[in-house]
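The data are set out underneath:

___
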Amino acid sequence: MLRVLIVLVLIANALAWVWRENGFETWGLPARPTMPAAAMPETPLNPERIMPSDGQQAAPDHLATGTEQALIVPQDTSAWVCWRLGPYAPDQELYLQAALPLNNDRLSGEVKQITLPQRWAVVTPKSTASDVAAWKEQAKAQNIDHRTSDADVLKGRLILATFVSRDLANKATEQLTQKGWEALSVVRERPPINALSLEIRSPDEAALDTIKGRVAAIPALGGQAVLVSTCPQTVAAANSAPTISTVSPDASASDDKVDASRPKVTPVRE
């Protein structure tokens, strides 16, 4: 039985081969149908590129539709203002990324990793509240910006100036000593801190209000108010001439001021 099946399969293969070669056509049997050629499109694929009789390529009358899209000419953003919001803790990165605008031709931004520099403070000796009050009056009389702090190392002292390097703080101490201050010392108020900032570029402050609303619920580093400042520019360091911050007599003495070319900073008002 197996031999019969093998013979039948061989015969079927032979007949199929003859049929594919149109061998049955000579016996009057129908020939194997041929596949028609692919139909040509009724219109050219790129009608705007038809070559006229003069041999010059014709320019398209309009941009093609479909998968081809019109090119978007990027705007000149060289005159845009760069704003920095922050600082934020590193674990807030996902929330900051979500606050960035998408496909906004009036606003662009990015989350950047920054390092808050260490801060050195020129302070008075640790003393009683009455002594601190007397030093405040002396600072006001000399129009020196000053403040206090609840940090353990600074409690009971009056901070007269802060700098990003100890050398600047030491030179400022010499200047203050010439003004009659005694027993001043330099204390590191904080070490360098890793943080995040949100840098936004926009043509005007009106576009910045959109981002302020989006980040209003994101807490700033240390629970402080979010600060908005212009992005820092690359400038040459000037470590040889520290400047003591001065204020008018009616200015608040509780502001946390940091010298050494710090950009102007304003808190976000919700």
Summary: The radius of gyration is 39 Å. Residues 66-73, 235-239, 248-270 have pLDDT under 50 and may be disordered. Residues 100 and 109 are 6 Å apart (CA to CA).
